[in-house]
Amino acid sequence: MVKVADVAIIGAGSAGLAALAEVRRLTENFIVIDDSPLGTTCARVGCMPSKALIQVANDFDHRLSLDAQGIHGGGKLRLDIPEALSWVRALRDGFAGGKASSTKRLGSRLVRGRARFLGPNVLRVEGKEYFAKRVILATGSSPIVPSDFLALGSRVVTTDSLFELRDMPKRIGVIGLGSIGLEIGQALSRLGCDVIAFDKSNGVGKFTDPLVNAYASRHFAREFPIHFHAHASLKAHGASVKVLSRGRSYTRDLILASLGRRPNLGSLGLEAIGAPLTEDGFPRFDPATMKLAGLPIFLAGDVSARRATLHEASDDGKIAGYNSVRKTARRFRRRAPLSITFSEPNLAQVGKTFAELEGPRFVTGEAKFERDGRALILGENYGLLHVYASVSDGRFLGAEMIGPAGEHLAHLMAWALQQKLTVFEMLRMPFYHPVVEEGLRTALRDAARKVRAKLGITTLPSPHFSA
Questions:
Q1: How are strands ordered across the β-sheet holding 248-252?
Q2: What is d(CA 366, CA 447) in angstroms, rounded to the nearest whole number?
Q3: 2-40 b/e (C-beta count within 10 Å ≥ 16 → b)
Q4: Tens-binned pLDDT, residue by residue, of the chain (467 aa)
């Protein structure tokens, strides 16, 4: 017998569960299909355990700056890495357990197994067939691991397996310095591991602003060795691994492969139902509706190969879920682009990046944090912030930054961007003293000055107050 449902959601991660919440507003006739461990990628192997590990690493690293403040004895502090990893897993299990429990409460509407399309509305799961009027694909993504890396077995890990380790070996190689590689590489270095990192690009964190990129690259290269413009291949060396790069070899006990993630699409059979695909083989869809053209199928989350962040995945799910239970798909405006890397200092990008802007049509406002009062007190006086504003009216367009409290400054800027504020309007907001936000004010003042100069305006009222 074929089970009939109004909606089938494939994937019970953050995007799938967000979609489910919208679906349940109008129907309880649904199924959720999943073949992976329950609890969401973010909670199990992504956002949450990585931040817990980073916190341990940063707390331990701060011992090195205590003497300068007259606090002595920090050098005697000892870190028990197995205990620290156990603490990270305990936190992780708490975060993931709540999500997993709520999913299990779906009872018979939770179908465990791998789905494959037999037709646009027909799915086969573990030998059984299901008919759904609409289908939501929220199958997530998996780490990219080249075949020669896989051949090395447990000597190569990704963040999907890193947090299951009971201890950390001394010598670790990190391949790839996107957000995950940088965050974990720095954390492992601060935990006392001997870390060497390799990346094909010319910098960290995917910055497109050359000055911010150069600043960030110099900063992190002082903390642990980083090889840029470096292709790395791996070769077994007894119980260890040799990293071969640019004519040299480096012996490592463990490799963290951080080469990005790939949408989980391979076993779905999309090609058999005529799903529209891009040249890269990804589903072609409308990000305002999350719908695949001409099919009763919607995408949500990392499987879309769009912005791999939890808030975007949740928004995808809400849009897909909303439209899946209505006759006509509604178009939704997306939130302001926002990405944060939880290294120390934080990296952040808001709105349009430097590379997306058009030459003479924007100005750059700059702030450095070396002499920022609050940053000096915190012992975090390093960083560079670039804000971009339209020459024609001073409208805030975006920013790239490395700096203290970057996770918070980035939110302020994203909110301003979504409200379509100008740098002049942003400067009318209150700034307390002493706070790191004064660095943002410095950059905004610089941008405002440059906009006025470009427009040839010398009599414009002070931008700090409303009329």
A1: 233-237, 240-245, 248-252
A2: 7
A3: ebebbbbbbbbbbbbbbbbebbeeeeeebbbbbbbebbb
A4: 578 899 999 999 999 999 999 999 999 999 999 998 887 777 777 788 999 999 999 999 999 999 999 999 998 999 999 999 999 999 988 888 887 888 889 999 999 999 999 999 999 999 999 999 999 999 988 899 999 999 999 999 999 999 999 999 999 999 999 999 999 999 999 999 999 999 999 999 889 999 999 999 999 999 999 999 999 999 999 999 999 999 999 999 999 999 998 888 888 998 889 888 887 778 889 999 999 989 999 999 988 877 778 888 899 999 999 999 999 999 999 999 999 999 999 999 999 999 999 888 999 999 999 999 999 999 999 999 999 999 999 999 999 999 999 999 999 999 999 999 999 999 999 999 999 999 999 999 999 999 999 888 876 555 555 54
Q: Is 303 exposed, middle or buried (0-12, 13-18, 19+ CB in 10 A)?
A: buried
Q: Minimal CA–CA distance to 275: which of 262, 259, 257, 291? A: 291
Structure tokens at 55: 């916190």
237, 117 contact by CB (below 8 A): no
Taking CA atoms, 383 is separated from 212, 214, 348, in Å, by: 9, 11, 11
Q: Are 276 and 293 in contact (CB under 8 A)?
A: yes
Report the 10 Å Cβ neighbour count for 454: 17
Task: Give all domains of the chain, ordered by start, each with its CATH number.
Answer: 3-143+262-324 (3.50.50.60), 147-259 (3.50.50.60), 338-455 (3.30.390.30)
- 414: closest CA among 432, 392, 399? 399
Q: By C-alpha distance, which of 331, 324, 329 is closest to 10?
A: 324
Of how many residues is the chain composed? 467
| Alpha carbon 191 to chain centroid, angstroms | 22
Query: In sequence order, which residues have a C-beta less than 8 Å from that of residue 251 and are 6 or more positions away?
Result: 171, 237, 240, 241, 242, 243
Query: Residue for token digits 């990129």?
Result: 213
How far is residue 179's CA from residue 265's CA, in Å, rounded to a whole number? 23
Residue 349 identity (one-letter amino acid): Q
Which residue matches tokens 């924007």? 362
- How many alpha carbons lie under 13 Å from residue 60 in its C-beta half-sphere? 20
The DSSP element (H or E) to which 22 belongs, if any, is helix 14-23
